[in-house]
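Render this sequence as a predicted structure.
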Amino acid sequence: MAKAIHSMIRVLDEARSIDFYNKAFGLEVADRLDFETFTLVYLSNLESEFELELTINKGRDEPYALGDGYGHLAVSVADLDSEHDRLSALGLNPKKIVGMEHDGTPLARFFFIEDPDGYKIEVLQRRGRYK
């Protein structure tokens, strides 16, 4: 059974966004991962394990136009390979499984799938921060 774990939005100003989500919804920074070209900030509160992932693309100074910013819903699964096989067998065309590292340490294994309207869903192997 899949479990929803986070949703991602792109933001232009990290501090302003963190301040807004803290004030509006009581979300606090749960984790911050800095990469060469972008930063990921995970926000959460005690009400739910579900997190909001802010992506800050370095070097961008133009605001995102509605519909221009990439976003996704994310779910985690116990067995990524089996889930990929199951979705493939259903003809739902999941993308290939990929891995991501942070500072040389494996961070995540995942793939994306799109719903009929083109919305992307990230399916992550359950481990580490991706419960």
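Summary. The mean pLDDT is 91. The first strand starts at residue 3 and ends at 10.
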